[in-house]
Amino acid sequence: MENRMPAFPDSFLWGAATSGHQVEGNNTASDIWAMEHVPNSTFAAPSGDACDSYHRYPEDIHLLADAGLNAYRFSVEWSRVEPEKDRFSRAELDHYLRMAATCHERGLTPIVTLSHFTVPAWFARDGAWNQPEAPELFERYCRQVVTHFAGEVTWWVTLNEPNVGALLTATGLLAYGGPAEAAQEDPAEAFARRVGGEPGTATVALPVTTPEGVANLCEAHRRARTAVKELQPKARVGWSLTIQDFQAAEGGEQKTADMLRQIAEPFLELSKDDDFVGVQTYTRMVFGPDAPLRQPRTERTFQTGWEYYPQALGNAVRLAAGFTGVPVLVTENGIATADDDLRITYTREAITSLREAIADGTDVLGYLHWTLLDNWEWHAGYAMTFGLATVDRETFERTPKPSLHWLGQVAATNGACLDTGRP
Ligand code: BGC
Question: Closest ligand 1 atom to the C-alpha of 240?
Answer without folding.
Answer: 8
